[in-house]
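Incident review: delayed structure delivery

Summary: a single-chain prediction request sat in the queue longer than the usual turnaround. Root cause was a stuck worker, restarted by the on-call engineer. No data loss occurred. The affected request and its eventual output are reproduced below so the record is complete for anyone auditing the incident later.

Affected input:
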Amino acid sequence: MQSIWQQLSREISDQVSHAGRSVVAVNGRSGQTSAGIVWTPEFVLTSAASIRQDKDIGIIFEAGNRVSARLAGRDPNSGFALLKLEQKSEAVPAEFGPTDSLAVGELVVAIARTRRGNIVASSGILSGLMGEWQMGPIRIDQFIRPDLTLYSGFSGGALIGPEGKILGMTSAEILRGKSIAIPSSTLLKVAEELREKGHVATPYVGLVMQPVSIPEKLQKQSDVDASTGLLVMHVEESGPAETSGVLLGDILFDLHGQSFEDLGDLQSVLRRVGSGHDVKASLLRGGRKIELTISIGERPLR
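Output delivered after worker restart:
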């Protein structure tokens, strides 16, 4: 009769083997490989930091079988890239699982593949979970921090949970060597946009603003239920805000029903609504409340 330890070990090994069919090694820079996750029979997700070339990127499957790929798009905001396979392969698309029911302390395993095609793994527990987070330009739907070691070549690989489904992509670059996972929700959403456009549209309104306090007297005088707003310091010529009638000196205090404490609050609204959509904006102009409709634009590529 097998012990509980033996049963658990065998179960973990079986889940690693199953999920590992969708994990590859990626040779996108000289002398080093990273890991990748097969999204569809034609596309592989990997860490953006591991890609230093646009063509002749090696994708290594089990037993060292190699096919070429090219860069289909990358998103510096979420830290990963999409590669398109240029030949037919034995790619097995990943089974992604939701992350909203995860709990701190659960056992998780990171999976990668070596340049020779061997599966490697590292196990630990979930040591931290939070909601949407942003660090500089990095924006992730959910903060997932596994307490495990990401050895060289593990970034871009898969993180699996008790059901054996891929919860996200492991990364050691975003937090300077500390292990985190980009959740499956972010991966799938960004991958779809990269496949369609080759880049991720950054919503913008064409304004430079800074937070300001709205005095209580002005709140009462203007019938405004907000103590802070964003003062318009610059209006981009022909941008969405100028086209909608926003002027220098206006104070934006509500957009799409959301008030503001800082610029981060505004960015959250823009990301949630997305480019190409109209939003209602409430502003103060010369002590009077006005309302405008702004069509959120897409920041031009530089």
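Verification: The mean pLDDT is 89.
Action items: add queue-age alerting; document worker restart procedure.
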